[in-house]
Design brief:
Length: 292
């Protein structure tokens, strides 16, 4: 990807769960060792060593890896910042709306309370791939939530385990491909309501700066109240496809993803044909750009 030092027409995007990689701790240790130390102090364990044990550890680990990728590129500023689900915390920190340390504290709390909610009310998530036109109607008939509208060919459903199994069976009968996501909770649905009070309490204790170039993937519009926006993301769907289209309409012509992984890069390319999207690591040299 050939991107000039002027990133005013670029969106920096940050992924959520599902992007974890075995080697991501090495990047954090090199560029953000203080985040590992803070995580161990707050959690009592190294979250990277416990990633396989659930979202309570995955979220702080992935947040730290996304921030490390951004710092490895020189902590660039851009025209817009956005994140998918958990990635909104990294987007907020990279934009300057919150500190990177407060972002990690939020990720730790968010992961913990979401895991507790999932254990109290077990559920699951199902990605529907390919033809998605009839997905919302089926979801509604089964009492499921459209948790993620990721791309024209990918919608994720969330809800109780038995209803998820029934949806998968019906899609199989219709010849539609599905993938059961490796999560134990019905994220981005009303099942996460019990996680809201504690996350709200931590949000109220952090310092927030106004950043008009930070867009919400829940509303697909710039945040008007960051705390309330981050809070609503626990129980409301991620409208990533609409967010990408909104960014294009706002003048974005380049998308750079601060990994790990390239999940969002793929979703962006499938949403806007011919768009320039790539990992942030593809920038030829780390660079600092003027804040906008």
């Amino acid at each position: 990807m050939n991107v000039s030092a002027d990133l005013s027409h670029t969106a920096l995007v940050f992924p959520g769960q599902g992007s974890q990689r075995a080697e991501m701790r090495d990047l954090v240790a090199e560029h953000c060792p203080e985040l590992i130390e803070l995580a161990i102090d707050e959690i009592g364990s190294d979250p990277f060593e416990l990633v396989s044990e659930g979202t309570a550890y995955q979220q702080p680990a992935l947040y730290s890896a996304a921030i490390a990728g951004w710092k490895a590129a020189g902590s660039p500023r851009a025209g817009w910042f956005a994140g998918h689900s958990l990635g909104e915390l990294a987007a907020a920190a990279a934009s300057g709306a919150i500190s990177t340390e407060d972002g990690l504290r939020l990720a730790i709390t968010r992961g913990r309370v979401m895991q507790q909610a999932a254990e109290a009310d077990p559920g699951g998530m199902l990605a529907v791939l390919g033809e998605t036109s009839g997905v919302p109607a089926l979801a509604n008939s089964l009492g499921l939530t459209v948790a993620n509208d990721n791309a024209p060919d990918q919608i994720v459903l969330s809800g109780p385990t038995e209803e998820i199994k029934e949806a998968r069976a019906r899609f199989k009968e219709a010849g539609v491909r599905t993938v059961r996501l490796p999560v134990a909770g019905a994220f981005h649905s009303p099942a996460m309501a019990t996680a809201v009070p504690e996350f709200r309490a931590v949000l109220e204790g952090i310092k927030v700066s106004t950043r008009p170039r930070l867009i919400s993937s829940v509303t697909a519009r710039p945040f008007t109240d960051l705390r309330e926006g981050l809070l609503s993301a626990l129980t409301r769907p991620v409208r990533w496809r609409e967010t990408v289209l909104r960014l294009r309409d706002l003048g974005v012509s380049h998308f750079l993803e601060s990994g790990p992984g390239e999940v969002l890069t793929g979703l962006v390319r499938r949403t806007i044909e011919g768009i320039d999207a790539a990992p942030l690591s593809s920038l030829s040299t780390p660079q600092e750009t003027a804040d906008v």
